[in-house]
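In line with agreed milestones, the collection of sequences with tokenised folds has grown. One record among many is set out beneath this paragraph:
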Amino acid sequence: MRKDNFFGVLVLFLCLSACNNLKQPEQVLNDTHSSRGSVDWPGLYRGILPCADCEGIQISIQLKKDLTYVITTQYLGRSPDLQTQKGSFEWNKEGSCIRLLSNAARDKIEVKDEFKVGEESGDQYLVGENQLIKLDKEGKRVEGPLAQNYVLRKYDFDKEIREKYWKLFELYGKPIVPGKNQTKEAHFILKNMDLRISGHGGCNAFGGTYELQDGNRIHFSQMISTQMFCEDVDYESGFLNVLQNTDNYTIHGDTLCLNKARMAPLARFVAVYFR
């Protein structure tokens, strides 16, 4: 090979390498400035969406780092049942919006525009700082007086006590052993709406009101329950007494303790998500 040809090829190679190196920082910069790259988006988001034939759709969406989600919905004023769906989600090219896909959609997707679209493709959300904004079917923000009702706020798992399913697993220092014929586990949920508590003692359903105050203080009142007799659930009365006597709580991760003053915990609970 002639020397002038060799040096020409060498110069061309160095130029192409330089161009490639210049493109890489731009790609990193774009990802850094997107919601996907700059926002702490994994976590739990909650809100109440408008509903045409009910009081509202109470919704919880947990987004995970592995691009999977769990969503629960409840149609307020229509049914107390919680509906749960799991699946994966994907980001658009700009890293600003996500689209939910059910598990069934993974094998039935096709590429269309920015998203993969399949028979099971779901809702789209704009991802912001500590919030998700539900978009319409065309992927646009809802405008008008109801616009704020389409915003879901992010919750802190380690500090939030409300809107969680708290399952009783220890009472007065002793582990809970379910009865042989028991069909419901002992638990309670603190609802945001109307500051209501609802739950089950293992035999009877109960409800009432609660009040939260600074310093992790809590007070339950107006407690009522059904009056069924269950022979093999011997801890229910103790559970209900705890709710009457509790005046503060401690929470660490998925574990909640109900306490009275500085005594040993009266009862311990574990959070069970998305039942």
